[in-house]
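Homework help thread (please don't just give me the answer)

Our assignment gives two proteins as sequence + structure token strings and asks us to describe the second one. The first is just a warm-up. Here they are:
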Amino acid sequence: MQISDKYNPQETEQKWYSYWLENNYFHSEPNEKPPYTVVIPPPNVTGILHMGHMLNNTIQDVLVRRARMQGFNACWVPGTDHASIATEAKVVAKLKEDGISKSEITREEFLKHAWEWTDKYGGTILEQLKKLGASCDWERTRFTMEPKLSKQVIKSFVDLFNKGLIYRGYRMVNWDPEAKTNISDEEVIFKEQNGKLYFLKYKIEGTEEFLSVATTRPETIFGDTAVCVNPNDERYTHLKGKKVIVPIANRVIPIIEDDYVDIEFGTGALKITPAHDTNDYEIGQRHHLPMIDSLDDDGNLNQHGLHYNGKNRFEVRKLIAKELEEKGLLLKAEDYVNKVGTSERTGAIIEPKISQQWFLKMSEMAKPALDVVMNDEVKFHPEKFKNTYRHWMENIRDWNISRQLWWGQQIPAYYFGEGENDFVVAETIEEALTLAKEKSQISNLEISDLKQDEDALDTWFSSWLWPISVFDGMLEPENKDINYYYPTSDLVTGPDIIFFWVARMIMAGLEYRKEVPFKNVYFTGIVRDKQRRKMSKSLGNSPDPIELIEKYGADGVRVGILLSSAAGNDLLFDEDLMLQGRNFATKIWNAYKLIQGWKKDETTKPNHSDHQAIEWFRNQMDKTIVEIGDQFEKFRISDALHLVYKVIWDDFCSWYLEAIKPNFGAPIAPQVYDQTISFFEELMKLLHPFMPFLSEELWQNISERTPENALVISQQRKAETFNNELIKDFETSKEIISGVRNYRQSKGISPRESVEIFTNAETISNEELVKKLANISDIHFSQKIDKPSFTFLVGATEVSIPLSENIDLAEEKGKTEKELQHLKGFLMSVQKKLSNDKFMAGAPQNVVDIELKKQKDTQEKIALLEEKLKTL
């Protein structure tokens, strides 16, 4: 079928994606083939496609499509994450619009609204991934809050609690006043902020003397329970055992001593507020200080804040500074820059807070999870992230797994009394009742007497089971899917969640399957703009991926984003790359259109140059296939694409098609045409993982295909060997052809005007092909030219073209002398470097060899030009 003049992605993409889905090409069931399994990093159910998703999912799709075409049973499991904090915030905002406050409704009512919101908006990002061409097994789509996955999360909690790895305790947590929940240390982003360092006056009890104390947070004085100095600070030796009066609060608190205090910071005296600072909490524990929590969950002062009760912490900071000054209790205030913890989820400034939470012990689980990465049982690409991983795993803290939210798996702890240990942990309330009766010795306890813990589990506590739970491995540890697909093959993710997710999945895999969850982890970079800023909605520097797809086609966008995306390195987004991707699609389209336009004639036979071109391209393609395989082994996806780009654009379109192209209006030999189509088909197979839509469109156009012969499930050409000498010979031929073409271009001679050449060589490889592509009428071997000529070197081979009679010899002589002068200057600089003893002694041998080659090449070119001058 004759293709249209222009490639139209909009017509093509939906057609072929629907075709792939209709024929179930993406679905996988266990079979006799080796599995290739990828689980998607589940995007937030609240999310829409952004450039980071585009990069990550394009890479996954390339890996999955290639594996499918390499003979693997490819299974890419899609899904979404319930994203407790983000989703709850969206639902709370929606309820607020409707005039409903979360505090006014029950948990059950709230969850009903949350599920409605999820059902309405939750599938958006997955639908967008289809436009990108993602070949996920959509029948296997999972959601971290669906009943089966939730059941597995609860099962894991109960199991770890029974093993003594989960415990409940009072700890200092990172409180997010906006989300109304605590968050983990890893979710706290520290940002520099301009503020003030306030020097407050704490009166020494029973005297008129004051102790000066520096703080950046004067609003927390209502929680002060001591002032601490360093025992080695001689300035305060006389205050040992004395007490001070807290400004405004007028409470008496002790002066204590602790080595933690930095003598050089501020005044060397530190106010201790154990309920509102992590370090103060530790000091408070050591010195058995009471704790006064003076802030509520909204970050407002509570009753301990006296007349500031109900006011926001930052408002109070300004007001209290003014009051302290008025009362003569503020010595001074200096400008100060400090690092402030903010919530990754909401951006709110974190408030350290003492709270009773659930924790998972990490030290026991971390050691084996560290070992499998260090010994490359799980390989990181690039390897540099092993050091990041090791540092975190060696300094790991217990994981705070509870969140003060309703959207999420509710912690399966059931309370039957007021005592500290009056609770049981069970998968169901019925099991909990049985356990509670045993523990309490109260035989007439009823389900209505049990109260389930209000908190939900951290979202990461569900996603750490993802490679197991998507195959229901916690519910049925020996089911056919988990036994076939686990461990998964490759994980593609960002380095920013190496701790949140990658490390924890490895721990869960070793804990529950006794083997790692994946064999390779490919870390993508962060997509940044030209100014190296991270793309974000707030900066307005992130393009809409769907708009890019509409403008450049999904294939163009995929190629554009991959061309500059080396593993682990940030990608500097440039829309011109998308244009390059679209232009590549146009080039391929036009190449096929050119081939289609040739007429076959049974009486036309291949000539010698046809055979030479075919043999060269077959070997060149096999060499490229081997190199592509090597790049995929190293997870250098961008480099693999560059190889595909080169073999199609340069080798096939620019050289091969030119070599076998019949003269205008002349027919082509059927054998050459058929071989060319065969090569094109192999190239489409190589291209397909990167540009699935265009390649399928052309593949289906080449001939009538049954569904069993679609490109998406075709097998790529295997190649292990190739004739490298033949390829090198062709490179020499290309240089000769390019040299002759350059001569014509520099002298303004038409390509249609044939030339003769003289060479010192006895033979030239691919002679017929060289003559055809360079339009050479005759080659004079082993002959030196004795008249004005244009001469160039190809290795040791001299090639000379007699200058046309209408060329100005004086001008040619001037150009030659100028070039000669330049080369002699360059030679002097190289020789100067080679005569430098320091350079020769310190430079690596390969660097010295490069300079020696420069010297030799330049000397040969100078000799040629000097010979040329003799004839001018």
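The one we have to describe:
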Amino acid sequence: MSRFIYEGSKTKEISFPLGGIGTGCIGLAGNGRLIDWEIFNRPNKQSENGFSFFAVKAEADGELLDARVLNGDLLPSYTGNIQTRKHGGYGFGPNQATLAGVPHFQHTRFIGEFPFARLQAADDCFPGTVELTAFNPFIPLNDKDSSIPGAFFDIALHNTTDRTVTYTVNLSLTNPMQDHKRYHRYARNGSIQLIKLSSRGPDFSAPEFGDLSIATDAEVVSYQEYWYRGGWFDNLEMFWRDFTEAARFTNRTYDPAATKGKGGDVCSLAAHFVLKPGEKNNVRFVITWSFPNCHNYWHPESCGCSDDDCKPSQPATWKNYYATLFSDSTKSAAYALEHWERLYGETKLFKDALYSSSLPPAALDAVSANISILKSPTCLRLPDGSFYGFEGCICNEGCCEGSCTHVWNYAYALPFLFPKLERSMRDLDFKYNIREDGKMAFRLQLPLGRSTSDFRACADGQFGGVIKAYRDWKISGDTAWLKSIWPAVKKSIEFAWADTNEDGWDADRDGVLEGRQHHTLDMELYGPNAWLNGFYLTALKAGAEMARHLGETDAAEQYLALFSKGKTWTDEHLFNGHYYVQTVDLKDRSVLEKYDESAVRDYWNDEAKEIKYQVADGCVIDQVLAQWHANLCGLGEIFDPEQTRKSLASIYRHNFKKSMRNVFNPWRLYSLNDEAGLMICTWPEGTVKPTVPLTYSTETMNGFEYQAAIHMIQEGMVAEGMEIVEAIRDRYDGERRNPWNEFECGSNYARSMASYALLLAFSGFEYDMKEKRIGFQPITGEVYFRCFWSLDSGWGTFVRKNDRIELSLLYGELEIRCLNLPFMKGQNVNGISLDGTEVLDCNWDEGVLVFSSTVRINAGHSLVIKLG
């Protein structure tokens, strides 16, 4: 079965995110339920929103043929889960909101190809088949339309009977407002009919202020603004009675002032249509929301008094970006339905281009599944549209604030799919997170302008920021942007040897980090190591190229000299013949004593007389991570190439476990039993493992695994790299874990977007838009190859066939002067054309196509090279 099709037990853990970038989302469960209502400016895992669901019914000749909710079976356990009321939860069976006790479809299949999900449903009792398609616009480079706060649904019915049938598709939604003045009102605006759910309680500026809407552009509609209010489950009883009549809804309404209780009011909006035997039809619905006021609930500001624990009665709020586009949920609903054809079409254009890529199925699965993180509550957008990210999501709050630099280092989806948003992260970081001497905080504080954290700088995070600035410049070609951040970038590089560097990273300016080095595994390494020194070297090399381009030749020469010196030392002194290690004397307490008291307190194991949390002679997964970044950013050699390949081979040999059954793991359990995984650090036979070793050493964290696997693929170890990728995606099979929620320190973890680099690795994609140059070097030797690509100005596909090369632009535009195709060296070219018109002013030489002037390719057009 395809990796993208889920049936039976493989649908149990599915929650497919439906929402915009920075808007929160609703989860579509594997059986069609609407779960995980994460639309209130914070995560809300495992949540339900009362009775919120789709239902369908069929009538003929004035009688009801069948009616059922558009769900499949609820999968075990049937004991009950989280307690939401006094007489409910564990030991009470499934919650009534699951609708498991209401007629539903016996046969369902879930097809997940992000950004689209499809639920196919059939039942022996229902006259026809149903297919629900759900999505939210995901259009690379179009961040506005990809940030609509809504879930889009298309429900198609096929009359498979021999009689004419009237079908009804109904959407019911519970009002989640907790005050006593819930307000539901139907409205019609042209062809759009909707019900808005809000309340008259909160102040407009309060964090809890907001509203939701359900809307359709169906021609024939009936509705109930309110379900019946009563005790027990009178509301569901009455709804089902009303719905199963061979008739349309009669409206019911109440005075908001008479609202009682803390929740539970429900509305319904139904579309009706007639199908003759064999006919098909579809109707569209959207659920949209507007909760415009964000506030820092995870780290509230004090009121300014001397009491550190004091919290203001009304927190400082800021507007969601989407609230600057849409004043309320009715406006986003109208926009969604009015522009449906374009939004759907452009999203499908991207989806088809991505899924046409000639990647192994597990690789394509990893790429597509993890771009969904951008639609999760891991991500926020600030009022001006700037992008902000947590590391991931705890059940009801963001996990680890601040667009954490060392985590987002690994995330390669955003810089290619939405480059403007990625650059906004650099802008915020280099404006708000830098000290005068260049020390960078690695967590951005909100609201903007708050004082930065006074915790020590993070080596991989700080130098990773330099590398990302270089990468983002090459993706965009925007030198004016680079100039705007360059003074801060330069300071951040030179902090390595600044007198004010509390951790003494490179105090002697020899290109080697020797001081205390905080890193992404949340502790510090003491002494030289290839992992963090590689970041330093890569930042120096990137800095040299940026400085040279900006006319600062002295700085460029200084950085390059340090790079060369440090590289030579690293290759000579840190490679043990098999892999790169850390130089540290674990028994030397004085290594810690030169720093503050916390170093000795936190790192000295007085019983073992040894420094804790170090790599030493271990084989660590990120030892040549910097070379992976350099490969992806076009920075060339950081470590000796042969030593790099040997190190990757050692990582595979020592750290990849094909079964975790006999592995001792006191840390978090991301793989277990007979699942496979690539561990953070191991100490091969013949080495000495520290008494208390590197933090998280026995964990298998997805983002780390992806980077090592992709690096292996880049270096020709395709089988080994794909074995690791397959192991990760096998763990997220829909039964054990949610395919659209790779977790690490919380759900929807940003580091997993490292998987996007699989596209870059398999295609050998290179780019330098400041020079207007791109290129491809597919790693497979197959005659046919196809892949999706994206840069700042446009995206499209690259195709290699027997007799031609095609570079197609599907969206935006592309200006190029050079197309580098090294795999075509030695091949003859019989013609080069743009949209059928021969291009004469160009030169082909050994796989490099150079145009005499810039060539512009517009959307819908292709550059074709015919081979001889």
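TA reply:
I won't write it for you, but here's a hint about the kind of observation we're looking for: The two ends are 40 Å apart (CA to CA).
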